[in-house]
Amino acid sequence: MAIERDKESLVTFLEKTNQSKRFLEKAEMIMPGGVTANIKYFAPYPIVLSKAQGAYVTDVDGNQYIDYLLSYGALMLGHGHSQIKEAVVRQLEEDGTNLFGTPHQLEVEMGETIQTLYPSMERLRYTNSGTEATLLALRIAAAYTGKRKIAKFEGHYHGGYDEVLVSVNPSLAKAGPEERPHAVLESKGMSQSHLETTIVLPFNDLESCEQILRDNHKDISAVIIEPLQAGFIPAKPIFIEGLRKLTEELDILLIFDEVKTGFRVSLGGAQELYHVEPDITTLGKVIGGGFPVGIVGGRKDIMMVSAPKGSADVFDHSQSKGSSASEVLFHSGTYNGHPTILAAGLATISVLKNEMNHVLNTTEELKSRLEWLFQKHHIPMKAIGVGSIFSVVLTEIEKIQNYRDLQLTNLRLRKEIDLHLLGEGIYMKPLNRYSLSTAHTELEVKSTVQAYEHILAKGLR
Predict the structure, then answer these.
(1) Catalytic entry in 65, 68, 126, 157
(2) Which residue from 4, 49, 69, 408 has the least number of CB within 10 angstroms?
(3) Where in this chain does the entry annotate a coiled-coil region (predicted)?
(4) Is 257 a catalytic residue?
């Protein structure tokens, strides 16, 4: 019966998205696999979007969807928000250019705004993405501590570069013991050395983490963590508090990767919720207002290792006597602190200060109504998440606390439901988390619940 329903949802998908299929066939002649980022792909092929406004997107076949992907959470104000457009136009008109390549006033204005919301970020630097932000954070940690290894958590994602592309989504057959996970490389082309230099920790298990960190503390520069795994599985307060104390004791820096959670679980991110200050914080996504941006910030003494000094860096051709590039922490980028992007980010934060509670309330309403609906149809489900992010998790497990718990849930049924939802006009990449925006209202909540009701009435199990 399940196989027949799978076929039904697939046939509907194929019939409604024929132009997307044709587009991908053409795109495959230009880009490997037809996409320029692996995350944009899903089987049998990704939907190709052509227009968007507010909470809605439209594909090349003319199908309209309520968007819960929101560019993986980046669009906290929805698509095409008027105040972001106005801020971008105003910056271009007032400054006369979209790029200076020099310091400019918006770098300070945005920095002051960030420091007000994230007091732990005593000094900060801009990057062009969340991935670049975490990369810089780890370089700063290594420079500050003089140690080369890092520790990350199983199931946590911090970007697509080698040091952290370890044990993000490992098979349980390769993942090793739960209390002492094995490091598993997640891509071709990676050096085997990362199996030694990246140490994997079990999320929400303080006792096991303590043993691993004590065994390796002389070599570990930093522990990097998503305070909410994948943006929706929260750390237990006792775990995050214990991790903070432990890293301080062992002279290991604690990095909060708040690329997903910053401005989504609260304006001040997860550190505001937990009342825990990390040594370094990374931000991205929401603060760009739909443009590429990242920020790294932290304690003044730590961040100052990235300050330009008298020593020559890699671009200083004078190479003054007695100095070399190796004496300076190098960080650069033509587009770092891009004025147009910072203008969009400041506009985003301004709107969120007034409308954050609306997004949080709408999210809670959708979560509770979906949980009630699944209960009505006798399907075990939990809407897990904090703030404006959550995931539909099909399980009887009382509490989902880590990556391995998530692997034991009914992922097959969740994927089947997601494919049906596309046919019902709900846009969500299969198995992904839900993100809401200021553009989502009671109307979208009602339409989403109705779509779920139509699907669950088919008797899915």
Answers:
(1) 157
(2) 4
(3) none
(4) yes
